[in-house]
Structure formats: structure tokens, C-alpha cells
Amino acid sequence: MDTQTAGANTAPKNQEVLLRMEGINKSFPGVKALDNVSLTVKAGTVHALMGENGAGKSTLMKCLFGVYNRDSGSVYLEGREVNFKTSKEALENGVAMVHQELNQALKRNVMDNMWLGRFPKIAKWCPLTSEKKMYDATKKVFEELDIQVDPKRIMSTMPVSQRQMVEIAKAVSFQSKVIVFDEPTSSLTEEEVEHLFKIINMLRDRGCGIIYISHKMEEILRISDEVTIMRDGQWIATRPAKELTMNEIIRLMVGRELTNRYPEKDNVVGQPKLEVKGLTAMYSKLNDVSFVAKEGEVLGVAGLDGSGRTELLENIFGIATRKSGEIYIDGKRVLNRNAKESVVNKFAMLTEERRATGIFAIRDIQANTTISSLKRYKKGPLLSDKKMREATDWGIKSMRTKTPSQRTQIRSLSGGNQQKVILARWLLTEPEVLLLDEPTRGIDVGAKYEIYQLILNLAKEGKTVIMVSSEMPELLGVCDRILVMSGGKLAGEVDARNTTQEEIMTLAAKYA
């Protein structure tokens, strides 16, 4: 990759300081999320912000963006002190943020989402919205960014990756001076990541200051000019990206050396456990998929966005309508017509989108941990709070979840810690087949290792794990075999120990 494409060292020298955050403190009940943190972002640069889940990255940005009120500290934008009380105020002053967890009006169309709260009027004197002006403005932004999305398409009909690109276009449409990207590539394909980097380089050339939060170190080293690393709510270091290596970033993030990114695979694959025959979906292009998964096996599912990876898991678990096909576990046919029936049949599924289909945001950790296994905690006609506390305590300890208490609302946790709570929830149902859709999405390198180890431990116990991931190194590092989806069909199957990324990509393009 040449440096012009990568963009890591192309920004002009001696840029003026665009944003300065000094001595930022923020506490929540039972935890100090930010402890005297400072950050300086120069015009025309990409400044990466890195740290483990719970390090305070997103909290710092929410203090900038007006989502949280900071306890103390100062923020200066182009030398002027600011204190945004709302995100609307931040946007109006040139600060935009693309959030990790999408929060969109899914029943409305793309252009409604783009201009929500600022709909163009037919005329100054007329309060009615001009659909034509809104459509034309959306098309203009999309053409500028080379985004191929119909402005009139309903958001819920689009894959997560396209919805992410709409959110990015919305941030750009504000003509912002500072744009925060919080895990922007967590749901993007490699091709879409390249497209995003072109957009970021264009914005940097305009003189924007880009704050880029990501756990993907290859991206950080490629796109960034400077890197700030946080740990446990504190500033640790700020360095030029060209002076850092992946190992140095990991050491600064976790405070220790992390020599292996993937645990050693020592699970023993046994007899066939799950058999899927001719699975065809009613409302997606998933068509005639058949495979066998074995006891103690981690079976990966690879493919490009829209290949049918997620649809495969959703149809097995009964949360998408099946047109035809059969599912067998231990040679016995199961129907799995809905999620409840699937849980009874010893299946569990961790979905791709935590906020939309995973967490109960306003409920606490205990409720989110025990919700799928409530029958276990009954004491007569009532639920035993003691049993629920013990189960939640097991989940927190076994997953090493960072939370002030069981009574903390799950929405206040970092994305990675939310994922750990959901994993603990499903493990408490004692499943035999785990369906994991992007289980490490938005999770830092240290927590990823813990998730990988947990997956392999479950396989050692004889569980069958089917794992969708858009990160091929992850599939190669954790799985025994990998199914490759393409165009809704099963394009092939490879041995994870003997294949290459090139072979997987060739199969992924077979029916695309």
C-alpha cells in the first residue's frame, strides 16, 4: 500500500490546532470514566483514539458532542471555548459524530434520516417540507461521496453497512470542521472500508480534523497521522502514527505485552451434531444451503456483505421466515420456528446489532443477563433475587465484564462490555449450538482474546459453535473449518488450518 493511498503521512505540516480538550473529568455512579484527559487535534489530520473497551474513548467524545455534560475541564474549538449542551448545538457549531451504535428512524427513508431536524422548506415563509429539495440535497451529498444508495429507500430494508454509509454522509452534510468516527468500519466490507478511507482523505484535504476511534490496528497505522492511547479513563500517550508498531500500541493499551492475538486451538472435533439440509429463506436470497457441524467444532462462516451469512444464522434460529429446508440435531429433526422454540432445542444466537436486537438498553446488567433463562431462578411462583444475583455474578466474573454493579444500566457500558453481558446471557441457557454473528464487533484486542478463549473453551466442552465474521484473520485464527457464502449460496468449504485469505475471497466472489 503506497503512502498516498494510505494517507498516513500526506497531511500538511504545521497545521493549526483545531480542537483542544484539557483536563476533562467525568464520573458515573460507582466509576470515574474520565480522569484529567486532554486531547489536541490539528486541522487537516486524522487523529486516532485507541484503548480497551471501557478506556473512556466514546465517553470523551460524548463530552465533546454534548451527549454528556463533563464534570470539569475545558474544550476549545478554533481557539474559542465551547461547552455544547446538546448534540444539535455541537452540529450547528461544526462538530459531527458518527456513532458506533446506529440510532436511526428505520421506518423512514434515507433522506428523512439525512435531514431529520433540519428539513428544507418549500419557502422561507412556508412551513411545509420540500421533498424535492431534500431529495436533490441528498443526491448531491451522495454523488460527492460516491455513495450508491437510493434516497427514497426505507432504512430497515438496507444492510447495516449501507446504513453506516448514510450516517457518514449525514455527518459530512453538516460541513463540519471536526468529525468523530466511532468504530466506523465495524460493519463494512473491505471494499466499503476503502471507500470510507477515500472520504476521510478528502475531508482531511479540506482541512477537517478527523477523530478516528477503532480497535483495528492495521487501519489505525494506515489512515492516522497521530494516535492518542487511553487506559482506564486516563491519557497514556500521544504519538505520530509513523513511530508506532502494532505491538507498541497493544502494550500501551493493555499495559502489558500480548504476544499472541489468538489462543492455541486444542479442541477435539467429534461426531456430527447439527445438520442443515436445503435451507432456503422466504424473504432473502438464501438458497439451498446444506452443511454439517460437529461436536467440539468452531465452524466459521465467511462471505462478502449481502452474501447470506447473517440470513443463514437467522433462519437456523427461527427469527427469519424459512421457505424450505430441514434442521437436525443429533439426528433428530427440529423445527426452530421461532427464537423461543430454538432456545428449548438448545440453540443460542448472538446477533450482529447489539443495540437493535441484543440489549434491553434501559434495564440493568442483571435483567439483561438473566432474561433468557428466567425459569432457572423461580422459587415457587416468584423469581429468586438471590439466584439471579448469583447467576449475574457468574456472568460478570467469567466474562471479566467491567461494570460498577449488577444494577448498572447496560446502555452505560462500553460496546465490548455489552457484548460480554449478552454472551453470558446465552451461556446461562446451557446451549449445545451457539450461533455467533460478529461476536467481536467493536471489541478491543484484549477483550477479543478473552472472547476467542471462551469460544474455544466451549468447543472443548463439546459445544458446537457457528461463527460469522467479516474479519478473515479472525476466522483463520479461531475456526476449524470455514463455510464461504456467496450470493445467498454456499460457495465452498475450506479447512481453516490449510487455506488462505485469497482462496476464501475467490469463493466469496463465486456467485456475487
Structure description:
The relative contact order is 0.12. The longest helix has 16 residues, at 190-205. The chain has 18 helices and 24 strands. It is α/β, with parallel strands linked by helices. A hairpin with a 2-residue loop joins strand 1 (17-28) and strand 2 (31-42). The chain is globular and about 70 Å long. The strands form 6 sheets. Strands 6-9-10-3-11-12 form a 6-stranded mixed beta sheet, with helices on both faces. The chain starts with a helix and ends with a helix. Helix content is 33%, strand content 27%.
Give the strand line-up of the largest sheet.
Answer: 6-9-10-3-11-12
Poorly predicted tracts of residues: 1-13
Rg calculated over all Cα atoms: 23 Å
**Tally of individual helices:** 18
The dominant shape is globular
| Assembly state | single chain
Give me a quick take on this structure.
The chain is an alpha/beta fold and 512 residues long.
Question: How are the SSEs ordered, and which strands pair?
Answer:
Elements: H1 3-6, E1 17-28, E2 31-42, E3 45-50, H2 57-65, E4 72-77, E5 80-82, H3 87-92, E6 95-98, H4 110-114, E7 121-123, E8 126-129, H5 131-145, H6 160-173, E9 178-182, H7 190-205, E10 209-213, H8 217-223, E11 226-231, E12 234-240, H9 246-254, E13 272-281, E14 289-294, E15 298-302, H10 309-317, E16 322-329, E17 332-334, H11 339-344, E18 347-350, H12 354-357, H13 365-370, E19 378-379, E20 382-383, H14 385-399, H15 415-427, E21 433-437, H16 445-460, E22 464-468, H17 472-478, E23 481-486, E24 489-495, H18 501-508
Parallel strand pairs: 3-10, 3-11, 6-9, 9-10, 15-22, 15-23, 18-21, 21-22
Antiparallel strand pairs: 1-2, 1-4, 4-5, 7-8, 11-12, 13-14, 13-16, 16-17, 19-20, 23-24
